[in-house]
Specification:
With 344 residues, this protein is mainly beta. Helices cover 5% and strands 50% of the residues. The protein has a single domain, classed as Porin (Beta Barrel). Strand 17 and strand 18 form a beta hairpin. This is Porin.
């Protein structure tokens, strides 16, 4: 009887697996980071209860669980969830808790894909938004044309918030994410992406909403893109253009964005480049924003409109690389990292 039950269970499980496709993938990294301006209580460095050490361990492990099935009419339905563990999973905990991401569910047919939940985000996925990587971790992400180190002002021009970045929808690796709706479309050399999110869709009280979209066209290895984000919060409005491509072993990209409007308008420009020789790639960027940020930390009294970074990676094969970089931020601080990253 026991053998019969085990056999029956195995058949049931195998039938479910045969009807769907479940895959596991992910990435990980480990190394060290340096911050010349580390201070006690900096949630972006050592955590709310951290110390003032300028060097710390860096580690991260992400596991994606993807499941999909294709209906008789050719429509593919699928979902993704992610588990992530790193050296500090939130501002108060430095021990490395494991976080679970909200699900992204989609329906795909030929060149169309409609998704809901923890969406990817149009701005996050815009071509050349994340210019050529210069480090293991991204450091301050000064190379991102939408990421402006800025103060937020009210209608009278009075500063209400001295730090505001990453003000767009993106897939969250440790939370529910935007809980929005998005449409992706691809046909030949054209690609498009539209995302909409609103607090009402999340079932919470609030008025925050975002509509973002872009379109791109690829020609002879070069990609041109144009897009925007519209929000009921002035500092979150965006309009951007980008251009990216390769000339033999050299890569080059340019992006420009108007971030915000009215008293909260800050323009930013990013130029990036790379050179590949065998297994080694060297990359660099320089970015300039139209407004210098306010100094935020006790050890920083001056700021700059310009940030720049230089990094390199060595491909070890099998999806693994040695990666490192150094960056000078708009807060006139130096950040650097070095380690190993790999995908599986």
């Amino acid at each position: 009887m026991k053998k019969f039950l085990i056999a029956s269970t195995a058949l049931t499980l195998s039938a479910g697996v045969a009807a769907a496709d479940v895959t596991f993938s992910g990435d990980a990294r480990f190394g060290v980071m340096y911050n010349s301006d580390a201070t006690v209580g900096d949630a972006n460095w050592n955590g709310a209860t951290g110390n003032d050490s300028k060097t710390r361990l860096e580690k991260r492990y992400s596991l994606n669980i993807d499941a999909s099935t294709t209906a008789d009419n050719g429509v593919t339905f699928g979902a993704r969830v992610r588990l992530r563990n790193e050296e500090r999973s939130n501002a108060a905990a430095t021990g490395g808790n494991t976080m679970g991401a909200g699900a992204r569910l989609f329906a795909r047919y030929q060149g169309f894909e409609v998704a809901v939940g923890n969406v990817l985000g149009a701005i996050e996925q815009a071509p050349n938004a994340y210019s050529r990587g210069t480090s293991l971790t991204g450091l301050s992400w000064g190379s991102v044309v939408f990421n402006v180190d800025r103060a937020v002002r009210d209608d009278a021009g009075v500063v209400t918030t001295t730090f505001r970045t990453f003000d767009w929808d993106a897939y969250s690796s440790g939370g529910s994410g935007a809980e929005g709706v998005e449409v992706l479309y691809s046909a030949g050399d054209f690609k498009g992406h539209l995302t909409y999110s609103h607090d009402d869709l999340r079932g919470i009280n609030g008025t925050a909403k975002r509509l973002a979209a872009w379109g791109s066209y690829n020609f002879s290895g070069w990609t041109a893109a144009l897009g925007f984000q519209d929000s009921n919060l002035d500092w979150q409005d965006k309009f951007f253009v980008s251009f990216d491509g390769k000339i033999q072993d050299f890569g080059v990209g340019f992006a420009a964005a108007q971030n915000g409007k009215g008293n909260n308008k800050v323009n930013k420009y990013v130029l990036n480049g790379s050179y590949t020789m065998g297994a080694t790639t060297i990359a660099a960027y320089v970015a300039n924003q139209s407004e210098a940020p306010d100094a935020r930390r006790a050890t920083t009294t001056e700021t700059s409109k310009t940030s720049y970074g230089l990094g390199a990676s060595y491909n070890l094969g099998g999806g693994a690389s040695i990666v490192g970089g150094v960056e000078r931020t708009t807060q006139k601080t130096t950040r650097a990292d070095l380690g190993v990253s790999f995908r599986f």
